[in-house]
Amino acid sequence: MSRKFFVGGNWKMNGTKKVADDLLGNLMKGSLDPNVDVLIGVPALYLDYVKEKSSCCIKVAAQNCYKVEKGAFTGEISPAMLKDIGVDWVILGHSERRQIFQETDLLIAEKVNHALQSGLSVVACIGETLDEREAGQTESVVAKQIKAIHEKICNWDNVVIAYEPVWAIGTGKTASPQQAQEVHKILRKWLADEVSEAVSQKTRIIYGGSVTAANCKDLAKECDIDGFLVGGASLKPEFVDIINAKQ
Ligand code: PEP
Question: CA-CA distances (angstroms) from residue 56 to 38, 43, 48, 50, 51?
Fold first, then answer.
C-alpha cells in the first residue's frame, strides 16, 4: 500500500509573529511537492494567527493539549479549544514533554485518546534514549510506548507515529537510514501483530531527529520511513527541501 509522505515541522517554543510570517512566507512561496502532507507545530499562543495566515495545503498543529475538555487545569489547553479555532492536529508525547515535563506513557496515551475522541488527528511521538539504545532496549522501549497508546485508543485512522530517538533530537546526530528503517520496520510489524495488517500497512511512521536537507533524501528512500518530524531545520528555508525529499 502506498502511504502519502508526511512532513511536520515542530517550531517548539520559538518565534514571534514576525518569525511566523517569515516561515509561512517561505513555505508558501516554495514549490511544495503536492504528494506530501505538510504540517507545522506552532506555539499555542500563535496557533490562531498562523492558522488565519496559512494556506489550506499547510496543516497547523498544537504541540500539546490536555486529556479533558475543560475545567480547573490552569495553563492547559484542550482539544475542544483547538477545534474551536480550526486547528485539527496536535503533536503529543514529544520527548521534551516526556523528559522535561515528566509526561508518562499513560498520560500521553490518555491525551492521544481524548484528542482523537475530540476529532483531532495526532502525531504521536515515541523513541528511546541513548542509554536505552546502548543497553539494547530500543525495541522493548518503543513497543512499551506504542502499546500504552494502543491500550487507550479505539482506532488508528487519525494517528501518525513519529519515531524520534531521543539521542538524535536537536543533537545533530541523525540515525542512519539503516538504524531508522530497522526501528520503523519493528513498529510496522508490531502494528501488524498487535493491531491488524491493514493498520500496519496504512499508518504513517515518520522519523525525527536532526533531519536536514543534507540527510533527508537518503532517509526518505527507506521503505518504512513515511516522512519526517523536523525541529531545528523547520525554522530554516531548507524545510522546503525536506518537504520535497522524495523528488
Ligand atoms: C523534534 O523536535 O521533533 C526534532 C526532531 O528536532 P530536531 O529536528 O531539531 O532534532
Answer: 10, 19, 14, 11, 9
